[in-house]
TrEMBL record, chain A:
Species, as recorded: Vreelandella titanicae
PANTHER family: SEPTUM SITE-DETERMINING PROTEIN MIND HOMOLOG, CHLOROPLASTIC (PTHR43384:SF6), SEPTUM SITE-DETERMINING PROTEIN MIND HOMOLOG, CHLOROPLASTIC-RELATED (PTHR43384)
GO biological process: division septum assembly; negative regulation of cell division
Cell membrane as UniProt keyword: no
A GO cellular component entry from the record: cytoplasmic side of plasma membrane
GO molecular function: ATP binding; ATP hydrolysis activity
Keywords of this entry: ATP-binding, Cell cycle, Cell division, Nucleotide-binding, Septation
Assembly information from the UniProt record: Interacts with MinC and FtsZ.
Function: ATPase required for the correct placement of the division site. Cell division inhibitors MinC and MinD act in concert to form an inhibitor capable of blocking formation of the polar Z ring septums. Rapidly oscillates between the poles of the cell to destabilize FtsZ filaments that have formed before they mature into polar Z rings.
Name of the protein described by the UniProt record: Septum site-determining protein MinD
Residues binding ATP: 11-18
């Protein structure tokens, strides 16, 4: 049975699309047949992060409006088998999405896929609500800063009230916390909220912690999800996150300041 | 502060306050129809009609001109004291002032849900009537909420106490006719005694509140002594003001 997972946050720029790309890649690398859907109609980004922007012909809105078939719009990832991307439309706005249309697409995708990831737009309006509406699980992406934590808190409230599971009185959506852009040095110096602060306020299960990393920006600009960069801290952290999503027990990494060795102190080695 | 006024000669001071207020939401502009309905209500619960101040809300009416004077007379006949009008056209505003009534702008749609929405909701208004008429023998229905009250959420106990087993996060709001007990951190807004019960209190395991209010007497976060923050606390209305003390 396919699992529908929404990647959401409320606030923009916290790493939703990066995380959706990295986690879907990670799932596919483990042999799970995965599709990732960009719900940010009008501000399409996922195709860039996945490096398939030059292969977009049809999009989500085309499929909803019956202008193209689902299989015509799905883009097969070139690097990993089992991974597909359903891009958003760049020329329409979020009103082009309908609940019935989204429901129909998800029903069809459920027949073929193990995981369906919905990359939510920022905000709490129509696009974000439709991205979360049919979800079985939610990954709430949060940065260690107060505004991001408050917006995540708001999203958690909506997940518990404005979704199909909530409205039909089914088991609630399984909520996961993914903390991104975590910089242990800045946490220690008091510039950032600590992981414990975030967990205390949001009071949900921690799925993963992604350190602030140069690898993420590099990956975004190259259109290669950071999960492929297995030598990087962020790539490893996303890999751990995927393991936990699949039910494995992984120890937490990258949340403490690294004690610098003699060599890196002498040569001033930065974190990569 | 810069005004060098001796406190001995000050005749009054202006103070901000949030008083519980009954809003009478008119869905008809016909004074006769209003009279009939009021007469019915009056016979049901005469205790409610004891020179109770009311705000006449005409937002839902689509009439440029109102027989405001006659409507007010009908209200006074039933021991309701109109003190102000909310909403309506420019002529309505002018005639409100001419009648010695205050005028409030209409409540904007989608405004932050605050006290206003509480006094607007029919459930709350009914419970207010009950609270007044049963003042001697209140039946307190405690509402228990398990879990985190999250930003943007509002949890209210319109008849009695509210008990939250969990935290109330920043941007969330908890309201109760009685007292509010938070077995966790209180980071949002807590309004106890929303129908005017000044005996109500607020109790929490960790005080980080944005706003504390008992029967409309409030303190904002920045008015709270920093020494009390982050610790268990209790809040009561004593000596004409809100008093916050460490708990236990």
């Amino acid at each position: 049975m396919a699992k529908i997972i929404v990647v959401t946050s409320g606030k923009g720029g916290v790493g939703k699309t990066t995380s959706a790309a990295a986690i879907s890649t990670g799932l596919a690398l483990r042999g799970k047949k995965t599709v990732v859907i960009d719900f940010d109609v009008g501000l399409r980004n996922l195709d860039l992060i996945m490096g398939c922007e030059r292969r977009v012909v049809y999009d989500l809105v085309n499929v909803i409006q019956g202008e193209a078939g689902l299989n015509q719009a799905l883009i097969r990832d070139k690097r990993v088998e089992n991974l597909f991307i359903l891009p958003a439309s760049q020329t329409r706005d979020k009103d082009a999405l309908t609940q019935e249309g989204v429901a129909e697409i998800l029903e069809k995708l459920k027949e073929d896929f193990d995981f369906i990831l919905c990359d939510s737009p920022a905000g709490i309006e129509r696009g974000a609500q439709l991205a979360m509406y049919f979800a079985d699980e939610a990954i709430v992406v949060t940065n260690p800063e107060v505004s991001s934590v408050r917006d995540s808190d708001r999203i958690l409230g909506l997940l518990a009230s404005k979704t199909r599971r909530a409205e039909q009185g089914e088991d609630p959506i399984k909520e996961h916390l993914l903390v991104t852009r975590y910089n242990p040095e800045r946490v220690t110096s008091g510039d950032m909220l600590t992981l414990d602060d975030i967990r205390e306020i949001l009071a949900i299960n921690l799925l993963g912690l992604i350190p602030e990393s140069e690898a993420v920006l590099r990956a975004s600009n190259q259109g290669v999800p950071v999960t492929h960069d297995i030598s990087s801290d962020a790539g490893q952290a996303y890999s751990d996150t995927v393991s936990r999503l699949l039910g494995e027990d992984m120890p937490l990494r990258f949340h403490e300041m690294q004690r610098k060795g003699l060599l890196s102190r002498m040569f001033g080695g930065g974190r990569r | 502060m810069s005004l060098n006024v001796d406190s001995a000669v000050v005749a009054f001071t202006f103070k901000g306050g949030m008083l519980p207020m009954t809003v009478m939401e008119l869905s008809s502009a016909d004074p006769e129809q209003i009279r009939q309905q009021l007469a019915g209500k009056f016979s049901q619960s005469p205790a409610f009609f004891q020179h109770t101040p009311v705000v006449l809300s005409v937002e839902k009416l689509d009439e440029p001109h109102l027989a405001l004077e006659r409507i007010c007379a009908v209200c006074r006949d039933h021991k309701l004291l109109p003190v102000a009008v909310r909403g309506g056209t420019e002529p309505v505003r002018q005639s409100s002032w001419a009648l010695g009534l205050g005028w409030f702008p209409p409540v904007a749609e989608g405004r932050a849900r605050g006290l206003e929405s509480v006094s607007n909701s029919p459930v709350q208004e009914v419970s207010r009537e009950e609270a007044v008429s049963e003042a001697e023998a209140p039946t307190l229905a405690t509402r228990l909420y398990r879990g985190t009250v999250r930003s943007g959420q509002q949890v209210s106990a319109s008849d009695g106490d509210l008990v939250v087993i969990g935290a109330v996060n920043a941007g969330a709001e908890v309201l109760a006719a009685g007292s509010i007990h938070v077995y966790g951190a209180l980071r949002g807004r807590a309004l106890a005694g929303i129908h005017g019960n000044i005996q109500a209190g607020i109790y929490c395991r960790e005080l980080e509140a944005e706003l504390l209010s008992v029967a409309g007497n409030y303190k904002r976060s920045e008015d709270i002594d920093a020494q009390l923050l982050g610790r268990p606390a209790e809040v009561h209305f004593t000596k004409e003001q809100l008093e916050i003390k460490p708990l236990g």
